[in-house]
Amino acid sequence: MSAMVAGTARADLLLQHFRSLADTSKPHHALALKAQTALHALPLPKRKQESWRYTPLPVLFEQAWEPKPAATTAALSVQQVAALALGDTDGCRIVLHNGVWLPALSQVPSGVSVLPLAQALADDTVVGSVSGPGRHLFAALNAAMAHDGVVIRVAAGPDPEQKLEILHVNSGLASGWLVQPRVVLVLEDGAQLSLSEQYLGHDDASAGLYNGMTEILLGRGARLAHARLQNEADPHRHLNALYLRQQADSAYTGTTLAMGGLWSRSEFHVSFAAAGAHCELNGFYLSGGQQSHDLQLDIVHGVPGCSSTERFKGILSGRGRAAFDGIILVQPDAQKTDARLSNDNLLLSRQAEIDTRPQLEIYADDVQCSHGTTVGQIDAEMLFYLRSRGIPRDQAVNMVCKGFAGEILQTCRSEVLQQRAQALLEQRLAGVLAGMA
Amino acid sequence: MDAAEKHLEELARTGYTAGFVTDIEADTVPPGLDESVIRFISAKKKEPAFMLEWRLQAYHKWLRMEVPDWAHLNYPKIDYQAISYYSAPKSAADGPKSLDEVDPELLRTYEKLGIPVEEQKVLAGVAVDMVFDSVSVATTFRKQLAEAGVIFCSISEAMHDYPELVQKYLGTVVPQADNYFAALNSAVFTDGTFVYIPEGVRCPMELSTYFRINERNTGQFERTLIIADKGSYVSYLEGCTAPQRDENQLHAAVVELVALEDARIKYSTVQNWYPGDENGKGGIYNFVTKRGVCQGDRSHISWTQVETGSAITWKYPSCILRGDDSVGEFYSVAVARAAQQADTGTKMYHLGKNTRSTIVSKGISADRGQNTYRGLVRMNRGAENGRNHTQCDSLLIGDRCGAHTFPYIEVINPTAKVEHEATTSRIGEDQLFYCRQRGLSEEDAVSMIVNGFCKEVFNELPMEFAVEARKLLEISLEGAVG
Q1: What is the mean pLDDT of chain B?
Q2: Rounded CA gap, A67 and B280, in Å?
Q3: Which residue of A has its CA nearest to B428?
Q4: Statement: residue B18 has pLDDT above 80
């Protein structure tokens, strides 16, 4: 009982802490003001709220995260950036160090304009136009303190193969840090882009919380291929909400790979403004050791004639945990909607835990919707097949896991990113298999 | 659709054929709930002391609980102080010993509903424990069952005659404070059914209770407890209709099943309570807690339900698979039309080794009906080689209805295997075309397709129920096609 009381008192303190952080932050633009009001009405996330039901919250609430000054004076060097970058974008990249845009280390292609968020906030109503002031405390906190990040605009250009990468590097901060950038990406009508993002906690031991927000607006007929690799350093908590708004006939193909950090939560909020839009979300998560990954999908079909496909897969080992919560909402009149969601999970250890909750909420009748979920360990017959052909057990397990994850990894447009994820997977699997032996 | 509209009109004219009120002077407490009402109920039923204690405990827990709001349901707040918690047909107070002693008006009520007790006794071989409001008024086939050693009586009788069994099992599956409605039921339940099948006995007939809600403003709080001892088998049928009325009626029943080693319980429900008028006015609010525990190894519990009635359905028949190699099953057809709302599904808790569960849920939404499947499958640490397969299909008829699927899957054992599949769509134009081409009317075609959609579930029902269920489904979907 006393532990519970202590817990409640602690939760109240944390809530006060986050609210006062927002109140004392400098920005006084419309979004921040709205979010500050919202923040005072929002509770600290708790298990009782359906969307936080399976999220291991104690890890998130371990510290009173706050913006921290740099602990080291070492800035990000050109060499470091070159080593971290994918390098398959003809040098086109945007570097955000601890959320702050470093123009000196960045370079953008023609037809693409970049504006620091703080500057855009003053006169550009696009910021916050998809996300709103935030539905939960952390989203509102990001909006209320909005300052870091960039607004990227892509015009329709002659090059359909236009590539860009964004590097999010968090390093050199005192422990307990809070970094809250926002990336707003606008693809004008007919624009096309292949975007890769990496979230990297660069050789850092100080624990922090990355509370990022991504807003994407796709114009008429715009096409975006979007690959994201989250590979934060071990102690970090990573929270990222992706808000996507699609105009008529636009297409979004995204792949999110959640691999790093101690705790992560990736949210996907997708909505359609007009018919003919298609959204494809792919995701892979790898939870080992004490890690937990949480994936939240909120797909709203509000207009007729759009389609969406969501495919998520996860491998869990050690004491790894994962939560998958995907809702497809088809509103009245959103006829001719085609929405399909699948979530498959592979458990490699006795202590792993998976909680999955695919949901359909449908208010229109002329629709095709389905979801499927599976949870299991590696099929004994598969292993037998491989072993009967002389393949050692470890290698067989490795092959099955790689094949399982491969289906998602190969949807990354950037081959370099794909290879990096593949290498990471192999390295992690080797560790798991060594532990199993 | 002209034909459909005509049909609908016809149906509206016919009204709810099972809706009528039998006028019987009732022994009813005034609306409201406090300790004295509970003491009154307990005294009225001459219960053993432990029961009053138990009820009061539940009442105090209930006072501290909150109404659950997570369900996908919309209904006005229920005023629990406006409900009368006890009502017994007067003629039952003396306790009829046989059918001859039963109020003839009551018997006529059942006859109007098509439940000819006399005939059923002879023809169907079904023992009927009729519940009129809150007190059981007739029990048949008691003797035949007694010969087999089966106890089949009202739960009030069981409290007098078999207090040790009641005390041992009551509340072990659904604890007093399990949820808001179960706590309320535990405090105020007035009657229900008690079944005990002794070791190694196969119950010689299908047991059945017909529920009937009567008497204005009285909530019905039934309590059913079924215990299947080692190696026994029982099939239990539950069906209900209710008279038409204007005020919403609350029904918060609790059903507890206990299956010991190698025992098997089959529990089938056809629920056709008054769903309210086209705007949902006057329908029954059905908040039911049903749960079975597969206590012993190799035990088996199977729930089958056909839910066509009620304005609000809040119901999750569950299985706790504790014994190794135990099996849980859930087969459901739920229909929501007009302004009906159903939030129903199941929970399968896998605790023992090699436990298996199957979930087949078919939801049909028409008009403005809202149908929600909500289910939990949990594979616990010890659920070695646990296996679950879930199939949830939703059929939409009309563009204003809703079909929702909210499964929860929790796995903490890597050897367990869980599969969940859900689909939502409407009746295919091609399917309809195919049938119409062969000379079927649109109504018949839809009826045939819907029946095919539900076949997997109907196949699980005992024969008589399967026939009734098919008919019910046809009637409830009449005029909904367009």
Answers
A1: 81
A2: 54
A3: A366
A4: no
pLDDT digits (tens, 9 = 90+) for B144-185: 788 899 998 888 889 989 999 999 999 999 999 999 999 999
Return the pLDDT at B212: 39
| A6, burial (CB in 10 Å: exposed 0-12, middle 13-18, buried 19+) | exposed
pLDDT digits (tens, 9 = 90+) for A18-62: 999 988 877 678 888 899 999 999 999 998 888 899 999 999 998
Its ipTM equals 0.85
Whole domain around residue B88: which residue ranges?
Answer: 26-427
Place of tokens 């009826």: B447
Neighbours of A212 (CB within 10 A): 26
| pLDDT tens per residue across span B78-117 | 888 888 887 665 443 344 455 555 555 545 545 545 554 5
Chain B residues with CB inside 8 Å of A318's CB?
Answer: none
Show the tokens assigned to A169: 């590097």
Please report which confidence band the pLDDT of residue B44 belongs to, taking 50, 70 and 90 as the band edges: confident
Is residue B288 assigned to a domain? yes
Residues of B in contact with A349 (CB under 8 A): 414
Q: Where are the beta strands (DSSP E) in B322-466?
A: 327-336, 341-344, 347-350, 356-366, 370-379, 387-397, 402-411, 417-426
- Residue B458 inside a domain? The answer is no
Helix (H), strand (E) at residue A241: strand A237-246
From the CA of A40, how many Å to the nearest CA of chain B? 23
Tokens of A352: 């792993």
B69 CA to chain A: closest CA distance, Å? Answer: 11
Which helix H or strand E contains A266, and what residues bound it?
strand A263-272
pLDDT band of B297, cuts 50, 70, 90: very high
Distance, in Å, from the CA atom of B104 to the CA atom of A8, rounded to the nearest integer, reads 61
The helix (H) or strand (E) run that includes residue A372 is strand A368-376
Whether B414 sits inside 8 A of A361 (CB atoms) is no
Q: Does residue B111 form part of some domain?
A: yes
- B304 assigned to some structural domain: yes
Domain coordinates in residue numbering, chain A: 2-274, 379-437
Q: How far is A253 from chain B (nearest CA, A)?
A: 23
Note the pLDDT of residue A325. Answer: 95
pTM: 0.85
Q: Answer yes or no: do A362 and B394 touch at CB < 8 A.
A: yes
Total domain count for chain B?
1
Using a CB–CB cutoff of 8 Å, tell me whether A350 touches chain B. Answer: yes
Q: Which residue in this structure is represented by tokens 């909210």?
A: B406
Shortest CA distance from B393: residue in chain A: A370
DSSP string, B242-297: ----SS-EEE--EEEEEE-TT-EEEEEEEEE----STT-TTPEEEEEEEEEEE-ST
Mapped onto helix, strand or coil, the DSSP state of residue B7 is helix
Tokens 């997708």: give the residue.
Answer: A270
Residue numbers in chain A where pLDDT is lower than 50: 1-2
